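Hey, quick one: can you model this chain's 3D structure?
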Amino acid sequence: MSNDIGDDIELRASFTTPQGVPVSPTTVTFRIRLPSGTEQNVTATQTGTGTGVYVGTYLAAEAGQHWWRATATGSVRAVEESGFGVQAGRVVG
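Sure thing. Here's the predicted structure for all 93 residues.
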């Protein structure tokens, strides 16, 4: 795990047609499941790097494995999922 508590973690999702053509949904929502089992929404914004690419920033507050899902609605209906780990700090100060 290379993420620490207190890090900003970028979530990134890309959406395409079944033929692989980038497409922008009307709305994208990121939802994270924290190691404790609680869930949190993260605001998604379209990046300037390309059609159909959305990002959100999560401030890591718990150690352990996190899972996220980006849900696209409107003009495109799709889901992308992934996960990341966060390690507990070893230094108190």
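One thing worth noting: The chain has a mean pLDDT of 91.
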